[in-house]
Amino acid sequence: MINPIFILAETALETIPLEIRDDRIIINYCKKRKKKPSEVLLDQSYHHKAILKLNDHEKRGRPDIAHFSLLEATSIPLYFENKITVYVHTLDDKIIEIGRNVRLPRVYERFVGLIEKLYSENIIKNGEKVLLKLYKGTLKDLLSKIKPSTVIGLSRLGEKSNFKKVALFGLKFERPVFVVGGFAKGTFKDEHKLLMNHIFSISNYSLDAHVVTARLLYEVEKNLSNKYD
Ligand SMILES: C[S@@+](CC[C@H](N)C(=O)[O-])C[C@H]1O[C@@H](n2cnc3c(N)ncnc32)[C@H](O)[C@@H]1O
């Protein structure tokens, strides 16, 4: 049995960091939303000028990337049939486990509301069923827990390949992990590249994470079904 795992890594998802909590933009935004900075997500659309003060600012404050990419990963037969496990690793080293049969909000504001609730309660349940779970952890911690047979990173700067070849390559292993970056600019940190057994590029273009997620998982889905047909 092959159990592929998908990780959206270094994802630009976090609550307002300490360094900018006293910035006027942040104070006004939190006042308007009647929430504490620790309860709202950092978002380039609203906090751009404040984000410029942060290290790695180009990679931060893009919850929309997680929204789009997770919709692509959880709205497909591969996921409906429990043939893929989905995780998010964030730039500030948090892990989000996505449970089985989770239907994420299609509307962005509702997705943000759900993730903000997750950040304040660490778990989202529907009855006894765990939908989302949040805890501290590095990508290395997550991989130690998953115990993959191989870790395949996707980056424009990797070895030239294509989606089909990458999917087929991964599916030779029992527990392949596919890692896509959940950020808009830049590349994976060196410490994360070192955790990857292979890094493949599927285009000369720098594509959006959700496009890479959708196309890669479609190939995984097709090729996984072929194996069992
Ligand atoms: C917007 S991109 C980040 C851009 C970055 N310049 C990069 O190194 O690809 C988000 C993620 O999509 C994936 N990606 C984008 N373009 C890719 C490509 N041509 N080949 C493989 N993966 C790609 C990577 O996982 C990347 O971290």
Key phrases:
single chain; 229 residues; 8-stranded mixed β-sheet; 8 strands; 38% helix; globular; binds S-adenosylmethionine
Question: How would you describe what is shown here?
Answer:
It contains nine helices and eight strands. The chain has 229 residues and is an alpha/beta fold. The protein has a domain at 18-59. Helix 1 packs antiparallel against helix 2 (44-51) and helix 7 crosses helix 9. The chain starts with a strand and ends with a helix. The model has no long low-confidence stretch (mean pLDDT 96).
Describe what is shown at a glance.
The protein is α/β, with parallel strands linked by helices. It has helices at residues 24-33, 44-51, 63-74, 77-80, 108-121, 139-146, 163-170, 190-193, 209-228; strands at residues 5-11, 85-90, 94-98, 123-126, 129-136, 150-160, 176-181, 198-201.
Mind sketching the topology for me?
Blueprint: E1 5-11, H1 24-33, H2 44-51, H3 63-74, H4 77-80, E2 85-90, E3 94-98, H5 108-121, E4 123-126, E5 129-136, H6 139-146, E6 150-160, H7 163-170, E7 176-181, H8 190-193, E8 198-201, H9 209-228
Parallel strand pairs: 1-2, 1-7, 6-7, 6-8
Antiparallel strand pairs: 2-3, 3-5, 4-5
Helix pairs in contact: 1-2, 3-9, 7-9
Bound molecules: S-adenosylmethionine.
Average pLDDT rating = 96
* Overall spatial form: globular
Query: What low-confidence regions span 5 or more consecutive residues with pLDDT below 50?
Result: none
Q: For the largest sheet, list the strands in their spatial order.
A: 4-5-3-2-1-7-6-8
Whole-angstrom Rg: 18 Å
How do the helices and strands follow one another from N- to C-terminus?
EHHHHEEHEEHEHEHEH
Associated small molecules: S-adenosylmethionine
Give the amount of beta strand, in percent: 15-25%
Main beta-sheet strand count, sense and barrel state: 8 strands, mixed
Gap between N and C termini, in Å? 13 Å
Q: Structural class of the secondary structure composition?
A: alpha/beta
The number of helices is 9
SS elements, strand count: 8
Percent of residues in helices: 25-40%
